[in-house]
Write a structure and sequence with these properties.
51% of the residues lie in helices and 8% in strands. The chain is of the alpha+beta class. α3 packs across α7 and α5 crosses α6. The longest helix has 38 residues.
Length: 547
């Protein structure tokens, strides 16, 4: 941490003692020269810091560079309090379901899976005589390494990596260690990682990480969100609400119909996300099977690679360099961004409706809305959702723009970026759960909705002038504009205007029955049937509970 302080109150022989872990009064040092020794150490009750300072002779300011002392570094080992990302700290409980797939552990696990599956595939190729078909016992042993992969195994891989300084090679060595005691597998240890470049393993591992994370975590949460909004839409299908276009009163709608729009929009984007095919390559160092064909020239390696990749549940990409091109990742992330943007729109609308008093929020004993204003019940869940969606979109947007770009046959810039895939998904997941939590606290305030409608009789200008057009009344729009624009409009003034119109009695009677509450068009039916629309988009699974 670096701090710069400049003040006319401090002389050049004074400085501040600053302890970030224990608040205390500021005290002047006896002599500033005591700080000039760059190795001088100040000991505090809770931590030890090394202080070095630099001065400008013509200034009252100074700089303090504070470094955590090594002998106390264990106090700052990773925990909820020391995690650099709030996903791994404050919000861990809400996003930890992603950890088995999007973490370093997940990456190592799927690398192990790919390496073992490739060895098994080699044993099934008749031309590869050096790797005969494994016995049932050997196959069971290898598959057991996948099924039984543990945190201790992952830590052992990391220990090996400290020696190799190569993460994929560490997985290969780990598997050789695990299998050297098995008499059958020990004979073919060098066929682990056979003809592979690291990216053959990595690209498949990354694709499997994404596939599992989306299938097991993200899609189920998206489903719940769409279900919750669908339920709200149907429950409030007939609750009339004043629309606002440009922030001004407009033709009435129903609360349920406006919510139904979001259920349909989110469903469309979820379908787009689900249709993105996770892709994989397995073509060696530059995508041409060079080493494969030298070792076994009579084998159709492109066909073998396609069989292998598709056996993992991935789409085969035949035209690649050293790396899979990552275009599918960009497509996936952009689709998630669109889903997130719709949810931001939802969050902001609900925030606005709460501000208008259309929704009340269920309070929870002990919770505090403001540190100084006791009455506050803030829409924090929707604000948290919106903020995290913005952060997620920033992360996903960068991944989408960067990953498809790689110099010539490969540069390493994608490697470090791919390690950040979990961030965008994590912030998205946190946002979805925050929105769900907020939805669960909402209570409709029908009295407040009705109050706004009762004060907006001018919205009936639209149906009146439309009926006037039908029956040939001259200048209908202009006459309603004269009656309503910039003027106070009441139930009585509207009725008086209708009574004076030259219209068939049936049409006039129909207009006289209209109120801001009843002038909602097909909104009620649109809200009530939202589940069938969503089901038609994404299938019946999503909204089984809404029917």
């Amino acid at each position: 941490m670096e701090a710069t302080v400049s003040s006319g109150v401090l002389t050049k022989n004074q400085a501040l003692i600053f302890n970030p872990l224990q608040p205390r009064k500021l005290q002047p040092l006896r002599n500033i020269s005591s700080l000039c020794n760059p190795t001088h150490t100040h000991h505090f009750s809770n931590a030890s810091f090394r202080l070095s300072t630099a001065f400008s002779s013509g200034s009252h300011g100074f700089r303090q560079v504070i470094n955590l002392s090594g002998d106390h570094s264990r106090e700052f080992e990773l925990s909820n309090l020391t995690a650099l990302s709030p996903l791994d700290g404050r919000y861990w409980g809400k996003v930890k379901d992603l950890a088995p797939y999007m973490s370093e552990y997940g990456l190592i696990y799927f690398r192990v899976l790919v390496e073992i599956k490739w060895l098994l595939k080699l044993s099934q190729i008749p031309e590869v005589l050096e790797v005969p078909s494994f016995s049932a016992g050997a196959q069971s042993y290898l598959l057991g390494l996948i099924d039984g992969f543990s945190m201790d195994d992952a830590l052992e891989v990391k220990r090996i990596e400290r020696v190799t300084n190569h993460d994929v090679k560490a997985v290969e060595y780990f598997l050789k260690q695990k299998c050297q005691s098995h008499p059958e597998i020990a004979k073919v240890l060098e066929f682990f990682h056979f003809a592979c470049t690291s990216e053959d393993i990595n690209n498949l591992a990354h694709a499997l990480m994404l596939k599992e994370a989306m299938t097991k975590v993200m899609f189920p949460t998206m489903d719940k969100l769409i279900e919750a909004i669908c339920e709200m839409a149907k429950a409030n299908a007939s609750i009339s609400m004043l629309s606002r276009t440009h922030g001004q009163p407009a033709s009435p709608t129903t609360l349920g119909k406006e919510l139904a729009i979001f259920a349909v929009r989110l469903s469309r984007e979820m379908k787009e996300i689900s249709q993105v095919e996770m892709m994989g390559k397995f073509a060696g160092a530059v995508g041409n099977y060079n080493a494969h064909l030298v070792a076994y020239p009579n084998i159709n390696w492109p066909q073998i690679a396609e069989e292998f990749v598709t056996s993992l549940g991935l789409k085969f990409n035949a035209y690649v360099t050293q790396i899979e091109t990552h275009d599918y990742m960009a497509k996936l992330y952009y689709a998630i961004i669109r889903f997130n943007n719709i949810l931001i729109d939802f969050d902001r609308d609900i925030w606005g409706y709460i501000s208008l008093g259309y929704f009340k929020q269920i309070t929870k004993a002990g919770e505090i809305g403001s540190s100084t204003m006791p009455h506050k019940v803030n829409p924090i869940d929707f604000e948290n959702s919106e903020g995290n969606l913005g952060k997620a979109n920033e992360d996903l947007s960068y991944l989408s723009m960067k990953l498809p770009i790689s110099r010539w046959q490969r540069d390493l810039t994608d490697s470090t970026v791919l390690r950040n895939m979990g961030g965008g998904l994590g912030h998205s997941l946190l946002a979805y759960k925050s929105a769900l939590q907020g939805i669960g606290k909402l209570q409709v305030n029908e009295a407040r909705l009705s109050e706004d409608l009762n004060q907006a009789w001018e919205v009936l200008a639209e149906p009146i002038q439309t009926v006037m057009r039908r029956y040939g009344v001259p200048e209908p729009y202009e006459k309603l504009k004269e009656l309503t624009r910039g003027r106070a409009v009441t139930k009585e003034s509207i009725r008086e205007f209708i009574e004076g119109l030259e219209l068939p009695e049936e049409a006039k009677t129909h207009l006289l029955k209209l109120t801001p509450h009843s002038y909602v068009g097909a909104a009620i039916e649109l809200a009530r049937t939202v589940d069938s629309t969503v089901n038609a988009i994404n299938g019946t699974k999503i909204l089984e509970t809404c029917s």
